[in-house]
Amino acid sequence: MRIWRTLSLQARQMLAASLALVAFLGLTGLALDRAFAATAQYGLRERLANLANAYIQEGEVDRIGGFISPEIPPDMRLLSPGSGLYANIRGEGVTWDSASTLGRSMPPVELLEMNERRFEGPLTIVDSDGMENSVFAYSFGIIWESASGDIPLTLSVFEDAQQIEDQVRIYRRALWSNLLLAAFVLMMVQLLVLRWSLLPLRNVERELGRVRQGESQRLSEIHPRELESITRSINSLIESERMHLDRSRNTLSDLAHSLKTPLAVLRSRLDADASHEQLREEVAAQVQRMNEIVSYQLTRAARTGHALYSAPIEIEPRAEEIVAGLEKVYAGRGVLCEFEIDPAARFHGELGDLQELLGNLLENAFKWADKRVLLIVSVEAAPPDRRAGVNFTVDDDGPGIPTEKVERLLQRGVRGDERVHGHGIGLAIVQDIVTAYHGELRVTRSAELGGARFSVRIPPAF
């Protein structure tokens, strides 16, 4: 069973196609063989019928009821004993056998009614040496008008069955030889077609090998239509893993670089022979700083990248949880949030990414809003082979953000107002998440509320 499961695609297709080809050619051969045998028998029947008709037209019955055959028979083999062609006539008081029947015991003939015809065989005849042979018989019932009255006769013509058997044997030999040759040629053509049709898969395999060896960064874009979705998904996976690796390296590098300063401060304090109390305060401050740095870098590392294939997540319940918490935090300011969420909207990604995305956008809006915040979520239609995209829009009625400050505000560590509590990384986190999902973040002015509008577009994905 394991062998069958591990067969290659080419072997599977070749095996299936070969079985179908053998079955088709076998059934075709059987059908042609049976058709030829039936045709050969039909030809024999017509030939014997013509001989019988010729005897009826040229022969006659004498006054005493004897049959007088024509001087020159329709077929000269009727004059040669054992020639394989025989004839006889039976009737009331009439018995006649052709010269070819000499020394042979012909099968009994049943008398037929007028115009009754019968073709049968193979029948057995016995020669003078006791050897048995097979013949086919054509019998024809007639009423012969003579001077003594109407005489019912049955004319029978026999021909050796060996002739048909030889024809069928020769035909079968030629038929099956040609069918075997055709099967071999078709299998070779089939093998070439299979290799040609599976060539794109082998190309993908070779390209993946080059990617594994570091000789290429991604799969090429030139593939058959049926493989485009697969190669695009593989490229997306490769890019996602590469981005994840690069970001992990960057995170470790940033963490090491960030920890250099507090460690250097501690070293300098130790070298400066500071007092125990001063050293204690400095250590506490630098440990707190390092803790913040490590927490931030770990959070950032956890956020980088996303699962390429994730179950769709309902957006409205998550948004309600986040807004419920924010309304409690900012209860003293009386900020309220309104929803316009498409019930069909789904986020195809990680739950943590959705929570970070909505949490930072909504918290920023609550922080700057006067009284109102508006969350709009809509679905972006996608082709049948892709997952639908989703658009988030968060508006507030605060002071808004000047256009010239938007780019700087999205940088890590930059805050819109130093007097407002925060670390200045919330919008940078949003930007990282949007980038990871190949999306787009835009900051404009809200036409409805007058404050800032943050628009996030997560495009359709495979």
TrEMBL record:
<keyword id="KW-1133">Transmembrane helix</keyword>
<dbReference type="GO" id="GO:0016301">
    <property type="term" value="F:kinase activity"/>
</dbReference>
<keyword id="KW-0812">Transmembrane</keyword>
<protein>
    <recommendedName>
        <fullName>histidine kinase</fullName>
        <ecNumber>2.7.13.3</ecNumber>
    </recommendedName>
</protein>
<feature type="domain" description="Histidine kinase">
    <location>
        <begin position="254"/>
        <end position="462"/>
    </location>
</feature>
<dbReference type="InterPro" id="IPR003661">
    <property type="entry name" value="HisK_dim/P_dom"/>
</dbReference>
<dbReference type="InterPro" id="IPR050428">
    <property type="entry name" value="TCS_sensor_his_kinase"/>
</dbReference>
<keyword id="KW-0067">ATP-binding</keyword>
<feature type="transmembrane region" description="Helical">
    <location>
        <begin position="175"/>
        <end position="194"/>
    </location>
</feature>
<keyword id="KW-0472">Membrane</keyword>
<keyword id="KW-0902">Two-component regulatory system</keyword>
<keyword id="KW-0547">Nucleotide-binding</keyword>
<dbReference type="InterPro" id="IPR003660">
    <property type="entry name" value="HAMP_dom"/>
</dbReference>
<dbReference type="InterPro" id="IPR004358">
    <property type="entry name" value="Sig_transdc_His_kin-like_C"/>
</dbReference>
<feature type="domain" description="HAMP">
    <location>
        <begin position="195"/>
        <end position="246"/>
    </location>
</feature>
<keyword id="KW-0597">Phosphoprotein</keyword>
<dbReference type="Pfam" id="PF02518">
    <property type="entry name" value="HATPase_c"/>
</dbReference>
<keyword id="KW-0418">Kinase</keyword>
<keyword id="KW-0808">Transferase</keyword>
<dbReference type="InterPro" id="IPR005467">
    <property type="entry name" value="His_kinase_dom"/>
</dbReference>
<dbReference type="InterPro" id="IPR058619">
    <property type="entry name" value="PhoQ/CarS-like_HATPase"/>
</dbReference>
<dbReference type="InterPro" id="IPR036890">
    <property type="entry name" value="HATPase_C_sf"/>
</dbReference>
<dbReference type="InterPro" id="IPR003594">
    <property type="entry name" value="HATPase_dom"/>
</dbReference>
